[in-house]
């Protein structure tokens, strides 16, 4: 091949004079000037000599079916990798890039198209290496012919005629070359000019020419061919030539020359492809066809995630480009790969941005907005998935203006970001009402199997979406450090914009959608998945001081685990200004926590509100249907029927909405990912407070130190809330989601952080207890609850569950909230359920006993509060039941209809209120009485202490009066089960408590002392009820009668004791009873019985006489007075004995 001429900057004829530029050339120069073409020539790559280190023929043969990657252009290189500067008449865009092609790279070579495998014959397989055929012409001639074929041009009229003008004769360029005395051969040094000349042909202008040659040339041109079509056809023909070269037995030096030529031609073609995508008006185009981005985008949209080649270019199995014609779907990725490898970062941005902008425009033209049921979204997802498989493009995306709009708001970020419209797709009912209407309408009238099948279909589609989204985000994250930072910053931006989602009642129009937040969380979970290995090998990669070194997530206004705002502000403001950036694992970990807090947890809350609304509307429906008798006019009847119809419609809609929520929230793949992540979070938090920092390799030991680590105290409270809310949701709706390892992690976490002084918020602790409580509800094939088996054998559970619950039962007496009086009952209901469920386990009973021995005062506090709650619940329960009985009887009377409407409405309102309150108190009262029954069977001592025994006896006697006394008929209600009223169980439990304590003298005395409720007749009636209602056996009834006799005997003894007048100095100042263990209060100096002050301090730790803070250990014993009292009591006993002897 001839060497490139050095005078291409001017157009010199044979005489050497400079010729005048034509009008067409001037137009082309102006076009190229817009791209900033340099005026200096670039070095020409030699084509006649091979590189110094020539590859062997074996190496060439082995790599003949692969294309090696391009070398990434340097930041300083210009746009196009090309040849020397063309003459003034044929300016070339190739001069915009000056990076020489030194050697072929592996990304350039494409695999051969896949063929169907042939059946293999039986026996050894013989592998043969295809032999290269001998070329029919010299290499230089072959190369010139291939360049002519690639560009589909010729400089020889005869060659054009011989191909029936399929080769375009460049008549004008041939004339120029003759004037330059240049051979009319399509050699590599003319490639630039050949391409410029071909692209500059304007069919519209040619059609008006009088030159017959021009008209003949025009007739041979493809009709309506765009510049992009021509260039991609040339690109495909170039690869066809490369495949042909691989089959020919050229010498190593010739093969090396072709490799350099191939790279130069490919770079030149791709350069012009990029140019036409950026500015399709650069060369003449058909007026009736879309050009540039408008013709490239449909190619991208023809690919779906399932049809587009996956993987990067090093491992892609896409077919090698075919020999000409428009791009086929499996050729798009190799073409984009060449496009990405050919340009530097800034130029590639200019090339790709117009297509992405058009991508947005076309998406928003779709009407109605695409949802998960359609296929339009798959086309757009396939386009993006294809683009990001090219590393250069993936690395570029976060830096483009279309990545996310400036000053974007929370509700618009999912619309005004590159991936937002695809990431927001979901099945949630608020954003995509079409889903529940199509798949879950009228759910109460459909088969469960039908609904479940629809859920499975939708979950399959969502799984496909999630996989594709992850592949896209993952490709961008891994493309470069800059793109990873840009992607993480996008996640962080979404979090910052959606801080309002943390509120209780949020206007959905002011925040991002549930689907958008959930899908981003799924992407983060999949990114974090490699970290969550079974051995927690990367757990220490998570930096507990992340919020001191990174401002990506703002927690300034978040409540901390155990720190005031002032302490937290001081801690974070004192962070040293060090050059330390958070690692990728820490970024993912804490971003996931933020998305769990603002995304999935809030979506679960939205679902919960829908379910709550169902309950409320069902109550309204029942009231409306119950009032039919009052519709005594056609107008009222029509109005009532319309209301009932609307209630039923609203209920059906809300049921369908819940099914739509559950489709995504209870998707097994999402649940498994999230459970694994939260397990990692729980383990990380436990490890953080483990003094040895060895958990989980060595399980944490309890109790914990009194002081928790500072890094732990300063973390945001929502880390715990994330765990509590999600596992409470699973415990209620998907208890099978947890395996044994998950359950053990949850139990360890819960028992560890129910420890005092580690978590401030009692509501958070209550949620942890609620998870255990829900886990002990019988559900499905879990007869004792999904957590029962693990709680029965887990080492921390058998040792610390009972004492931990006792302490929690006491701590929630004061929650600090304005509803704390009612809060404690809700919290203690869960504690009671756990006690009741686990009491059959001897290990837990032993732990309960041990807690009494370890801290008797604390145990007495617990029993005192349990007694107080029991008394309150039973009183409220029986009062409400009596009220229901009375109001129902009143409303059933004939005279009720004659009462004024207002009075009738008031009576009905009171009845509804009583019916609403009765079930809770009735069930709680029964549960607490049965707990006391179980406790007194094994642990009697605390129940006969002076602080407890009198209250216990009085409470039992009082409730016995209501249940079997003269007013027992007032508790009769039409439907006892509706109000959880089980009088037989309640009487049996009360009777058993009497029997459990029947050998305790102090208890017998306390019952005998109860002058308000106790009577012999009451117990006789009690015994008859137990016998006649078959509540207890005859033997057990006999024991009750025997106990009553013991009480009668004690009453006689007490009457004798009461005949003596107690000296004033021996009387308790509060109860006016004989003191048994007098003590002196340290500040008021009042002498009082120890049991009396202990009882007072159980509810309020202040001196009752001056309200000064007081603890039991501060009181001062008074042994002298105690001895005097004991002597006086002994004197009375002696006198009583003497009287008995005399009698």
Please sum up the structure shown.
Helix content is 57%, strand content 1%. The strands form 2 sheets. Strands 4-3-5 form a 3-stranded antiparallel beta sheet.
Question: Can you give a write-up of this model?
Answer:
With 1143 residues, the chain is mainly alpha-helical. 57% of the residues lie in helices and 1% in strands. Strands 4-3-5 form a three-stranded antiparallel sheet. The longest helix has 43 residues. The protein starts with 22 loop residues before the first helix and ends with a helix. 42% of the residues are buried. The N terminus and C terminus are likely disordered.
Task: Compile the SSE list and pairings.
Layout: H1 23-33, H2 57-62, H3 139-151, E1 153-154, H4 157-162, E2 168-169, H5 171-179, H6 191-199, H7 203-206, H8 212-220, H9 227-247, H10 252-278, H11 293-301, H12 329-342, H13 345-365, H14 376-387, H15 391-396, H16 420-423, H17 433-439, H18 448-479, H19 481-497, H20 514-528, H21 546-549, H22 565-573, H23 584-626, H24 634-665, H25 668-689, H26 710-713, H27 718-733, H28 740-753, H29 762-774, H30 788-793, H31 795-811, H32 820-838, H33 842-854, H34 856-892, H35 901-938, H36 949-964, H37 983-996, H38 1001-1009, H39 1016-1028, H40 1034-1057, E3 1078-1080, E4 1087-1089, H41 1090-1099, E5 1116-1117, H42 1119-1142
Parallel strand pairs: 1-2
Antiparallel strand pairs: 3-4, 3-5
């Amino acid at each position: 091949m001839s060497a490139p001429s050095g005078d291409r900057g001017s157009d010199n004829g044979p005489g050497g004079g400079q010729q005048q530029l034509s009008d067409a050339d001037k137009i082309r120069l102006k076009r190229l000037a817009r791209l900033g073409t340099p005026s200096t020539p670039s070095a020409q790559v030699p084509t006649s000599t091979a590189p110094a280190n020539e590859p062997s023929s074996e190496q060439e043969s082995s790599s003949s079916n692969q294309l090696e990657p391009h070398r990434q252009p340097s930041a300083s290189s210009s746009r196009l990798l090309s040849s020397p500067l063309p003459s003034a008449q044929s300016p070339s865009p190739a001069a915009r890039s000056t990076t020489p092609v030194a050697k072929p790279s592996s990304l350039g070579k494409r695999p051969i198209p896949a063929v169907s495998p042939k059946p293999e014959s039986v026996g050894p397989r013989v592998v043969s290496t295809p032999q290269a055929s001998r070329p029919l012409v010299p290499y230089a001639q072959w190369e010139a012919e291939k360049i002519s074929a690639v560009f589909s041009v010729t400089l020889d009229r005869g060659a054009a005629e011989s191909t029936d003008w399929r080769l375009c004769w460049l008549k004008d360029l041939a004339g120029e070359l003759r004037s330059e005395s240049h051979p009319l051969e399509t050699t590599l040094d003319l490639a630039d000019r050949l391409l410029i000349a071909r692209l500059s042909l304007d069919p519209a202008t040619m059609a008006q020419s009088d030159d017959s040659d021009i008209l003949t040339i025009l007739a041979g041109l493809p009709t309506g061919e765009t510049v992009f079509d021509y260039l991609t056809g040339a690109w495909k023909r170039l690869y066809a030539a490369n495949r042909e070269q691989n089959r020919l037995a050229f010498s190593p030096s010739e093969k090396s020359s072709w490799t350099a030529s191939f790279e130069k031609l490919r770079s030149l073609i791709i350069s012009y492809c990029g140019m036409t995508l950026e500015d399709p008006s650069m060369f003449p185009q058909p007026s009736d066809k879309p050009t540039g981005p408008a013709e490239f985008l449909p190619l991208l949209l023809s690919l779906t995630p399932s049809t587009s080649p996956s993987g990067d270019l090093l491992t892609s199995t896409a077919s090698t480009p075919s020999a000409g014609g428009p791009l086929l779907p499996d050729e798009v990725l190799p073409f984009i790969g060449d496009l990405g490898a050919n340009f530097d970062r800034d130029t590639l941005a200019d090339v790709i941005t117009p297509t992405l902008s058009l991508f947005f425009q076309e998406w928003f033209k779709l009407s109605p907005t695409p949802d998960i049921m359609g296929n339009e979204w798959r086309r757009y997802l396939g386009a993006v998935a294809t683009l990001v498989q090219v590393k250069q493009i993936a690395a570029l995306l976060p830096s483009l203006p279309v990545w996310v709009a400036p000053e974007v708001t929370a509700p618009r970020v999912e619309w005004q970001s590159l991936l937002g419209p695809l990431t927001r797709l979901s099945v949630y009912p608020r954003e995509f009402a079409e889903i529940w209407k199509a798949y879950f309408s009228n759910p109460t009238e459909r088969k469960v199997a039908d609904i479940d099948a629809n859920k499975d279909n939708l979950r399959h589609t969502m799984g496909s979406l999630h996989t594709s989204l992850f592949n896209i985000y993952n490709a961008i994250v891994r493309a470069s450090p800059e793109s990873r930072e840009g992607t993480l910053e996008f996640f962080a931006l979404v979090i910052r914009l959606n801080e309002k989602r943390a509120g209780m009642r949020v206007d959905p129009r002011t925040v991002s959608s549930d689907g958008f937040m959930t899908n981003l969380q799924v992407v983060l979970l999949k990114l974090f998945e490699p970290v969550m290995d079974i051995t927690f090998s990367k757990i220490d990669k998570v930096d507990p001081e992340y919020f001191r070194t990174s401002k990506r997530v703002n927690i300034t206004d978040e409540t901390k685990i155990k720190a005031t705002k002032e302490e937290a502000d001081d801690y974070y403001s004192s962070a040293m200004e060090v050059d330390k950036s958070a690692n990728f694992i820490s970024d993912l970990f804490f971003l996931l926590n933020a998305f769990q807090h603002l995304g999935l947890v809030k979506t679960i809350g939205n679902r919960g509100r829908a379910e709550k609304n169902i309950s409320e509307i069902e109550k309204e429906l029942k009231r409306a249907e119950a009032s039919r008798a009052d519709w005594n006019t056609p107008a009222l009847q029509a109005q009532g029927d319309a209301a009932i119809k609307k209630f039923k419609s609203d209920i059906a809609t809300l049921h369908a909405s819940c099914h739509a929520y559950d489709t995504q929230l209870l998707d097994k793949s999402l649940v498994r990912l999230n459970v694994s992540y939260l397990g990692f979070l729980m383990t990380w938090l436990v490890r953080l407070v483990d003094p040895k920092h060895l958990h989980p390799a060595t399980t944490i030991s309890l109790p914990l130190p009194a002081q928790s680590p500072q890094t732990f105290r300063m973390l945001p409270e929502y880390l715990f809330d994330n765990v509590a809310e999600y596992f409470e949701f699973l415990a209620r709706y998907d208890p099978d989601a947890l395996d044994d390892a998950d359950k053990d992690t949850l139990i360890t976490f819960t028992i560890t952080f129910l420890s005092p002084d580690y978590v401030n918020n009692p509501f958070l602790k209550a949620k942890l207890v609620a998870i255990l409580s829900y886990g002990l509800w019988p559900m499905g094939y879990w007869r004792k609850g999904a957590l029962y088996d693990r709680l029965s054998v887990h080492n921390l559970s058998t040792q610390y569950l009972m004492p931990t619950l006792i302490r929690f039962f006491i701590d929630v007496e004061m929650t600090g909230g304005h509803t704390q009086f009612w809060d404690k009952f809700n919290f203690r209901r869960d504690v009671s359920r756990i006690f009741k469920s686990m009491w059959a386990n001897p290990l837990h009973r032993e732990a309960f006993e041990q807690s009494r021995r370890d801290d008797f005062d604390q145990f007495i506090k617990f029993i005192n509060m349990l007694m107080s709650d029991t008394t309150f619940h039973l009183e409220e329960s029986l009062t409400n039941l009596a009220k229901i009985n009375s109001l129902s009887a009143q409303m059933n009377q004939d005279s009720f209809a004659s009462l004024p409407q207002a009075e009738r409405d008031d009576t009905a309102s009171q009845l509804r209120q009583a019916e609403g309150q009765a079930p809770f108190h009735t069930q709680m009262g029964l549960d607490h009485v049965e707990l006391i029954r179980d406790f007194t069977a094994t642990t009697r001592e605390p129940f006969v202490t002076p602080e407890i025994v009198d209250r216990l006896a009085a409470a039992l006697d009082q409730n016995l009066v209501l249940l079997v006394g003269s007013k027992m008929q007032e508790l009769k209600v039409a439907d006892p089960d509706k109000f959880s009223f089980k009088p037989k169980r309640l009487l049996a439990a009360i009777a058993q408590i009497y029997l459990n304590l029947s050998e305790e003298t102090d208890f017998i005395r306390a019952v005998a002392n109860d002058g308000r409720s106790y009577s012999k007749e009451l117990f006789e009636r009690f015994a008859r009820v137990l016998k006649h209602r078959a509540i207890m056996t005859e033997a057990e009834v006999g024991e009750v009668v025997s106990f009553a006799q013991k009480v009668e005997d004690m009453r006689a003894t007490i009457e004798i004791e009461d005949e003596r007048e107690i000296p004033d100095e021996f009387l308790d100042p509060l109860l006016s009873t004989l003191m048994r263990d007098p003590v002196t209060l340290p500040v008021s100096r009042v002498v009082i019985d120890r049991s009396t002050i202990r009882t007072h301090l159980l509810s309020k730790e202040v001196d009752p006489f001056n309200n000064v803070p007081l603890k039991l250990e501060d009181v001062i014993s008074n042994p002298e007075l105690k001895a005097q009292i004991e002597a006086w009591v002994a004197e009375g006993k002696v006198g009583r004995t003497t009287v008995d002897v005399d009698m």
